[in-house]
Automatic annotation (TrEMBL), chain A:
GO terms for cellular component: plasma membrane
Taxonomic source organism: Streptomyces boluensis
Record protein name field: Acyl-CoA dehydrogenase
Acyl-CoA dehydrogenase/oxidase N-terminal domain: residues covered: 27-108
Keywords: FAD, Flavoprotein, Oxidoreductase
Automatic annotation (TrEMBL), chain B:
Ranges for domain Acyl-CoA dehydrogenase/oxidase N-terminal: 16-103
Record keywords, A-Z: FAD, Flavoprotein, Oxidoreductase
Domain Acyl-CoA dehydrogenase/oxidase C-terminal, first and last residues per copy: 228-369
PANTHER family found in the cross-reference section: ACYL-COA DEHYDROGENASE, ACYL-COA DEHYDROGENASE FADE28
Pfam families: Acyl-CoA_dh_1 (PF00441), Acyl-CoA_dh_N (PF02771)
Keyword Oxidoreductase among UniProt keywords: yes
Lineage: Bacteria, Bacillati, Actinomycetota, Actinomycetes, Kitasatosporales
GO molecular function: acyl-CoA dehydrogenase activity; flavin adenine dinucleotide binding
SUPFAM superfamilies: Acyl-CoA dehydrogenase C-terminal domain-like (SSF47203), Acyl-CoA dehydrogenase NM domain-like (SSF56645)
Cofactor(s) required for function per UniProt: FAD
Protein's name according to its UniProt entry: Acyl-CoA dehydrogenase
Family: Belongs to the acyl-CoA dehydrogenase family.
């Protein structure tokens, strides 16, 4: 289908006229929006979209926002929307897409991601969770870690080793795991901030029907790339106003509390203000490239810059606050459903930002990716590529 | 509390198709007529400025008149196009007075009363590339800082010295400010002496200007501040595009070299220690591009954010160009330290540019003022 922006705008207005947000229950409104193809217009017709360019979603969103329409609380279901859905769309069978995408987008079913393991972080392809075929089902055993939302999730995207005799990248298969299976045990993983945003997930004889496999057996690594690229875009791609994000509370404190100012902090603040504003412009430029239909490689770098700036700015903030920087709001173990990097006090921001250069690919790994895929520099000599997974050192 | 400056959402940070075509045309000319070897040969000669290249770029291609409206003899283009030209001139460390004449001196005149016949005439001369103009202030002058002025004696003649003026030796017209007027002097008129200095950056040579009883004639403006600030601000803002071009060349060249250069039986570019440094440099150039485009677009749209965009672009891009050139030298190893290899031209230009129109620190001071982030 092709619709120009004004046609799409017209279609959205017709939809809003037929389903007035003020008098339509939220769940009904969202379901109708999905069925009208206005959920994510770049998805195919019948799956919540209209087969339009991704950039045109902005036209729909502007109309819906102006009409005060409810949304699907995207932050609560970020992993489903940002990682599971694109992967299901790219690799799922028709039946899988019909089964999963609608409840995912509506927020009826929360998704989580079972990728990282205690022994497989940066070297994710070395993962050891085993899936063994038993007729029409797979029997899965292993341990996953850093799983947000596992305690709320109905489904998980899971990668597991199906052939230990193959080199590590070739023996992996991608599944959708039912989190209500009795073999799934979820334990909170408390982190340095005091809270438990993530979980450890223990898989003991979990049974997954072969119909819940995404992509071919042994092709799981390739399928996972779709998921991971979408994760990094999500982490680095937030749109902020000037002085939004981490720099906001710092400049406010600077302006309102002159007694805190020192010369060395002034120099550092100005440098970070410049870098923050330039990073914001870089993000804006990236979005303009996407809208123009010419995505550049710039996106690969956004998360790197974002992590570094968050860490430096929050570090500066603690120092600026002096005595207040010695205090911490609350160490109580809580389980937040939504993570807001800037939502709590300065101490929290400082500690939480330490994870920004680890989660979703460490900065060191991302620098390798930029060097090899953007700049075309040769990779380091590899000793693991052609060795059977079972023979790797660990 | 909200910051005092509102964010404009209409900034266009991309390159248009026309701008891409302009870039290709300029790059073609520079590839043919401004090779590194040619620049190296020229900089120690008696004529460091490349007048032939200037003629091609300024007169034949019409690039000197990009900022000038058509009715005044220019191309009626904008700072966005001039910025693309500067990116390419930076990539080639081209020894032509484009920034000094086609941007700074031209903006200066555009800030003078256009109804004065000599102002319109001089704009036309600069736009055609027939004459080269230079604003007589030290190259290091920041847009918001005090600038050099000369003295007008009781007999109406001008006296004084202005040091380290960029491209003054190539200029036909020199613009000097007194406390209450701006004068255009001919470089060869009586009482004007232009003395070339030995410059760190030989591709944008500096000269001292001494006035010893020079006749000023009719001033081009009685409001020197407005014209000079406008000129320096445009210079600083568009210098960022030149710095981007310098950084881009350094990165591209160094990536190519480290892929090719083998030590320890591997391409040196396969070592993570080097790859990470190059990836960092790539991130910096990506950011520099956004900052430089933002500044060019602000000028082109006469945005109220010009002072902020110019200061931001200089505060960010100046250190990036220097870092790129320093990394290029180090990662080239011994060959990078030789006179024969062009990387030193980029290092010298980048370091001089980092001082030109105000250092990054001076521009951060300007930002502190603009954004109400005051010193203790």
């Amino acid at each position: 289908m092709t619709l120009d922006d004004s046609q799409l705008q017209g279609r959205t207005r017709e939809f809003l006229a037929a389903h007035p947000p003020a008098s339509t229950p939220r769940a009904d409104f969202l379901a109708a929006r999905f069925d009208a193809g206005l959920a994510w217009v770049h998805y195919p017709e019948g799956l919540g979209g209209l087969g339009l360019p991704r950039a045109q979603q902005a036209v729909v969103d502007a109309e819906l926002e102006a009409a005060g329409a409810p949304d699907n609380d995207p932050r609560r279901i970020g992993i489903g929307l940002g990682m599971a859905a694109p992967t299901v769309l790219a690799y799922g069978t028709e039946e899988q897409k019909r089964r999963w995408l609608r409840p995912l987008w509506l927020g009826e079913e929360v998704w989580c991601q079972l990728f990282s393991e205690p022994g497989a972080g940066s070297d994710l392809a070395a993962l050891g969770t085993r899936a063994v075929r038993d007729g029409d089902t797979w029997v899965v055993n292993g341990q996953k870690v850093w799983t947000s939302n596992a305690h709320n999730a109905r489904w998980a995207i899971l990668i597991a080793r199906t052939d230990p005799d193959q080199p590590k990248h070739r023996g992996i298969t991608y599944f959708v795991c039912d989190m209500t299976d009795p073999g799934v045990e979820v334990r909170p993983l408390r982190q340095i901030t005091g809270e438990a945003e993530f979980n450890e997930v223990f898989l003991s004889d979990v049974r997954i029907p072969d119909a819940h496999r995404l992509g071919e057996v042994g092709e799981g690594w390739r399928v996972a790339q779709t998921t991971l690229m979408n994760e990094r875009v999500a982490i680095g791609g937030m749109r902020l106003p000037r002085e939004g994000g981490m720099i906001g509370p710092v400049v406010t404190a600077w302006r309102e509390r002159p007694e805190l100012r020192t010369h060395d902090l002034h120099q550092e603040l100005l440098k970070l203000w410049v870098e923050t504003e330039v990073a914001r412009l870089t993000g804006e430029r990236l979005r303009q490239q996407l809208v123009a239909g010419h995505p550049g490689p710039e996106g690969s770098g956004m998360k790197l810059g974002f992590a570094r700036l968050n860490q430096r700015v929050s570090g500066l903030e603690l120092e600026l606050l002096g005595e207040d920087g010695l205090l911490y709001e609350d160490w109580t173990m809580t389980r937040p459903d939504i993570v807001d990097f800037t939502g709590r006090d300065a101490g929290y921001r400082y500690l939480r930002a330490k994870g920004n250069s680890i989660e979703g690919g460490t900065s060191e790994v991302l620098l390798n990716i930029v060097a090899e895929r953007v700049l075309g520099l040769p990779s380091e000599p590899r000793t693991d590529k052609d060795v059977a997974w079972k023979d790797l050192s660990r | 509390m909200e910051g005092p400056v509102q964010v404009s959402t209409s900034v266009d940070l991309l390159y248009s198709e026309t701008e891409d075509q302009l870039r290709a045309a300029v790059r073609d000319v520079l590839t043919d007529h401004c090779t590194a070897a040619a620049v190296l040969d020229r900089i120690e000669s008696d004529e460091p400025h490349d007048r032939e290249l200037w003629k091609t770029l300024a007169a034949e291609m019409g690039l000197a008149g990009l900022l000038v409206p058509e009715k005044l003899g220019g191309q009626g283009a904008t700072h966005r196009e001039a910025a693309v030209v500067l990116e390419e001139l930076g990539r080639a460390v081209a020894p032509v007075p484009y920034l000094s004449s086609a941007v700074v001196a031209t903006e200066l005149l555009l800030g003078c009363p256009a109804e004065r016949p000599q102002v319109a005439a001089q704009i036309g001369e600069l736009a055609s590339g027939r004459l080269v103009g230079a604003l007589a202030v030290p190259f290091a002058t920041a847009p918001h800082a005090p600038y050099a002025r000369v003295r007008r004696s009781a007999d109406g003649l001008l006296h004084g010295t202005v040091t380290a003026v960029a491209d003054a030796a190539a200029a036909d017209l020199l613009y000097v400010a007194t406390d209450d007027a701006l004068y255009a002097l001919s470089a060869d008129q009586d009482g004007v002496t232009v003395t070339p200095r030995t410059s760190l950056d030989l591709t944008r040579p500096l000269a001292d200007i001494t006035l010893d009883g020079a006749r000023g004639g009719e001033p081009v403006s009685e409001d020197p501040d407005t014209a000079v600030r406008r000129a320096l601000r445009a210079g600083a803002a568009l210098l960022a595009s030149e710095q981007l071009g310098l950084a881009d060349w350094c990165l591209t060249e160094t990536v190519a070299y480290t892929r090719d250069r083998h030590q320890f039986n591997r391409a040196v570019g396969s070592f993570q220690a080097l790859k990470h440094r190059l990836a960092e440099l790539w991130l910096e150039t990506v950011n520099a591009r956004a900052a430089a485009r933002n500044a060019a677009d602000a000028l082109a749209t006469a945005s109220p954010e010009i002072p902020l965009a110019a200061a931001l672009a200089q505060a960010y891009c100046a250190p990036v160009a220097v870092h790129a050139a320093e990394e290029a030298l180090q990662l080239h190893g011994g060959i990078g330290m030789t006179w024969e290899h062009p990387v030193h031209l980029y290092l010298k230009r980048a370091k001089a540019d980092a001082i030109g129109y105000g250092s990054a620190g001076r521009h951060r001071e300007a930002l502190a003022e603009l954004m109400d982030l005051r010193a203790p």
